[in-house]
Amino acid sequence: MNRQDAAQRTVPEGPEGTPREGESRLRIAAFMLVFLVCTFTVLAGYRFATGTPAMNWYLYQVARHTAWLLGWAGHSSPVESDEMYRGREVEIRTELRGAVPSEPKTAAQVSEDSAPLTSWEIWQYRALQARRNAELDEDKLRLLTALPPVHGAGPAALDASIRKTVAGLENAMSRPGACRPVQVAPPEVVARLKECRIRFGALVRNPALGDDLKQQELTNIAAQLEDIVRILKEFLNQRAMQSRQQLRQMGPNVFFVARQGLRARLHEARQQLAAAQTDTSAPEEARKKRVANLSAAVSELEAQWQKRQQENPNNANADQVAFRFALVPECGAAELMGIFFAAVVAFPTRWWKKGLGVLLGVPLLYVLNLLRLACLAMIGAWTRQGPTYEIAHQYIWQGIFIFFVALLWLVWVELMVRREWPWQNPAS
User: Fold this and answer.
1) What are the residue ranges of CATH 1.20.120 in the chain?
2) Do 63 and 327 form a contact (C-beta atoms < 8 A)?
3) Could you report how far apart the first and last alpha carbons of the chain are, in Å?
4) How far is CA 245 from the centre of its chain?
5) Based on the number of CB atoms within 10 Å of its own CB, is 143 exposed (0-12), middle (13-18) or buried (19 or more)?
6) d(Cα 262, Cα 315) in Å, to the nearest integer?
7) 265-285, pLDDT tens digit by residue?
8) What CA–CA distance (Å, rounded) separates 80 from 127?
9) What is the pLDDT of residues 284-318, one digit of tens each?
10) How would CATH label the architecture of 131-249?
């Protein structure tokens, strides 16, 4: 007889082998306390993990597995698109590695970096850019907040304070651009700051102006700069909040095509024709035959497309059934998995049975979530993201998932834990 069995035999019992009421309440209270602590810890950790490389990797796996399921239900389901990033492969890979662009590379490295970007690299780059934008907005806001008030005891001190404030405003408004820095600020701020620079420049170029008039003009410019600082601070604060929100709500993009439209079929046929025309690996006779067949198919599709554009110019691509969605952190169902994990860990039973419950339950919930996402994508595609999709997304599948979490936990308790209770198995 092991220690746990001996401990179970010492549980105070009431009539018919049941535990005393106080002991039962104590166990329930302990379970609830541990469950709440575990739930809070898991959900807080999940919250802080949002936007981290680990969370980005997890969301990408969810997107990749969901796309694989959707590939069986429709024409195609690619994760991310490299259309916006073609020609920037070397730049993006260099940035992802954190390498210096001027470092010399071998011919093999150049060839490898010039290859098309993978969906994982595209998602990594988008997440990296979003995180950098959020950090830059917060840095600019801190820089503006740290600016001292525009004041000075005399013209010379006020002149220096104005120069410092103008430089700080220009720095807070500046963002790196493709060719040169760009200004990010409300048009009102840009116009008023330009006016202040003009007035201040005219004042500096007029040394004959008296000290009193100069002091008055500098005071007016200082007051206007204080107002500009206030407006820009409100703008940057709102922008920083939006950047943080965007970082928390972004995820890998999946484009599910349930049925190709005429335009997509034409685009695909043209790509196949271009590839066949430049293919030198196939025999000449076979290549010519394939090019002829593809040319005929392209001509037929072009005629159909032109006819459709004439008949319905505003909605010529209406025959395509597709749905584009992003796997944001809430789509990963990590919160409900965390609640299931907390319920299993908090329950008073042996640790190996807790581990087995987690190892079996969490993957089942992950698979159920993939089925949920694939089902919602198909509903969104065929209903054009109408009311049916919203009801299924917000209510039906939420209820199904919560019910399944509770059912899975109850099944685990019934099949693996129930026999350990001495009041349910007095003979042990």
Assistant:
1) 131-249
2) yes
3) 10
4) 10
5) middle
6) 12
7) 888 888 888 888 888 787 888
8) 12
9) 888 888 888 888 888 888 888 888 887 777 766 67
10) Up-down Bundle (1.20)
